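Sequence, please.
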């Protein structure tokens, strides 16, 4: 999978992942996946995000990083959010698996 300008790599994410976080994390995996392993942030499964966008309307100008297991669902979410007026949304390239590989 090609890295796009709208992506953030696992190594970039790791460098920026300091307290307090300079961005909000939206994890679009299903709740069971989130409970098994997560990076914190808001767990908003992709299907819920697509139908309940008004719940996060006040985040339109925030820096958002969207994550999932492999980076595919989060790319769908990134495109959806961008089309709906969210200004600064990035996708974790390779997803949580890429980040976990980096940490091993």
């Amino acid at each position: 999978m090609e890295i796009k300008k709208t992506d953030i790599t696992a190594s970039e994410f790791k460098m920026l992942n300091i307290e307090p976080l300079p961005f909000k994390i939206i994890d679009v995996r299903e709740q069971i996946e989130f409970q098994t392993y997560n990076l914190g942030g808001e767990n908003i499964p992709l299907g819920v995000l697509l139908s309940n966008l008004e719940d996060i309307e006040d985040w339109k100008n925030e820096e958002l990083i969207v994550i999932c297991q492999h980076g595919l669902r989060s790319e769908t979410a990134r495109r959806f959010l961008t089309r709906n007026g969210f200004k600064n949304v990035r996708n974790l390239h390779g997803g949580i698996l890429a980040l976990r590989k980096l940490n091993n």
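The chain has a mean pLDDT of 90.
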